[in-house]
Known about the structure:
The chain has helices at residues 7-21, 24-39, 48-90, 105-121, 129-139. It is an all-alpha fold. Helix 1 (7-21) packs across helix 3 and helix 4 (105-121) packs antiparallel against helix 5. The longest helix has 43 residues, at 48-90.
Amino acid sequence: MTGILSTEQFRAFACKASLRLGSPWAFMVAVLTVLTWLLTGPLFHFSNAWQLVINTGTTIITFLMVFLIQATQNRDATAIHLKLDELIRSSKARNIFADLENATEAELTVLKKEFSKLRKAGTAVPEMAAPLAKAVNKAR
């Protein structure tokens, strides 16, 4: 991405911000801000402007934090998926489960039904590998 902020710059910023803003110190700053706001209530006669200050501030902070949280969650989820895919690929587990986050809803439904059958029957997973792969391929 060209322009004001590259993807890598945003990733670095989001990671640093999430570490700092998720700290006990950041929480204490937030608590102290709210306490200060509460204590100034009598000074401003609990006016609408006084209430608007906290409402506006918290709305803006919440709006911005949603994007930071989503960015870090997306990165974490991608990393976990890649780690799981590597574990599946390098083990005796069936490779059909690698990259499931990109499967269609029909494929996921087929897998869910098959695992439900396995759970109810108490069947060992390797015995169901061929029928499961056939069912997923049929759903595609």
